[in-house]
Amino acid sequence: MNCRVRFAPSPTGPLHMGGVRTALFNYLFARHNKGTMILRIEDTDQNRYVPGAEEYIMESLAWCGINIDEGIREGGEYGPYKQSVRKEIYRQYADLLINSDWAYYAFDTPEELEGKRQEAEGKSKDQESGLKAQGSGLKAQGSGEGSGQKGGKFAYDSTYRMELRNSLTLPEEEVKRMIAEGEPYVIRFKFPENEEIVMQDLIRGEVRVNTASLDDKVLFKSDGMPTYHLANVVDDYLMKISHVIRGEEWLPSLPLHVMLYKALGWASDMPQFAHLPLILKPSGNGKLSKRDGDKLGFPVFPIEYKSPETGETSSGYRESGYLSEAFINMLALLGWNPGTEQEIFSMDQLVEIFSLERVGKSGSRFDPEKAKNINHQYIQQKTDAELFCVVGGSGDSGDLGDSGDSGDSDDLGDSDDLGNTRSLSGVEGVKVIGLVKERMNFLTDFWDQAYFFFEAPEEYDAKMVKKGWKEGTKERMIQVIQVIEGSGLKAQGSSEGSGLRAQVIETNIKEWIAKEELGMGMIMNPLRLALVGAPKGPGVFDIIEVLGKEETIRRIQQAIKILA
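and the corresponding structure tokens:
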């Protein structure tokens, strides 16, 4: 059988990082096995449909480098790849299940079902009270699996269905009349009574469930749309899906899906199933949610999402300064173990070594610090030129705030966007990247680490002024200007002699300091203050080299004017 997998999200809002990991594992499995990756939009729940969510999903996957072979945009011979466009297909299979006695019409109103729920809960409370009065630890008669009450909760199952309004209890003529007159109904799957279902999961091994513990799920809704269960199975069969790799939350649906394959006569063509473990909160207690990210200060979505309903904007990994390669690397290690101590993998390396055998059964705790460290390592691995293209050159940085221009310019910095007094050429911009990238954990750190290359200080750190700008500093800074003017330092933007400029100015200033018998801090601290305005940044001489002679002198003169 050809390897064909699908990622099938519902367009009900932003794509959680757990969904991206599901897509990633499907993609890695497909590529490793020379198979096909399909994107199918499962929009059968029209009440929860959110405009723009489909586009968001596709943009997210594209940013992650998860390339789709068949889908809405890509096309393919098994389309359409959007369930709302396929709804006429599903009805024929629902009718097939009705005709083969694997499903039935149910006409119960919501009010009737609620009445049954309350009745069941009332009986359960009465039974509990009776047992307490008797001092007995035994279960009430008729309780337990298959009672229809599920521990006091009403369930539309093999016991209760014969007490409800459906085609199993109503005369055939009445059922036909009700359908003809347009009375609302749903179609429910008819689970056999007290039958053990044996299933195989590629991650969890053998799974056994007795039908007595299952309720008759709705397959077709009163609005004429199939539920996820029917549409999912039909589409997987028609699209020749070989492996269904999905989240653990769908494991309770596996018995129904397996039985649907059997009921439709497709048991021999049933795909293999693999249910991925949950991504857990940093504490390890419970499934990771958006609330956890908001509380602890990290995103849970791949790219920024703005709700069309509330206008609320949720942060994304892209806009938070993550490289897509680092985000993917981090996700791959949540639930999958490479079997070695290696942590940094390219997408090609992941494809080569990925297997479902190394996916664990238990949930995997998300560690924001580890995610940050992986991103830091990816930033360090980039060449200065590559990183320059991402944060401010000719690449696309997404939205890095004040970190620079994301258009097609070769200059870093833009006075319209940043309020800068100057901009850097591509050559100088690459040099700035090299000076600050070691301090960068995120792409968004660039501006905080490098803003002083673009705009002169307008105010100065008070503690540094008190400590470094003493009596006589003004005169010494005037002498520093004279040393710089006589150093042969090229103007900013000049490439001539660029490899020696920092070295030359460092040699000249240090020789002058020694000649004047001055302490190094007496010069270097106020010089950094004049150039940066704060006790931060790379080496002073590297800063001077990038700023150039004119800008360096101008900043020193400005500091003298303000601080003297």
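(Above: one complete record from the training split.) The mean pLDDT is 89.
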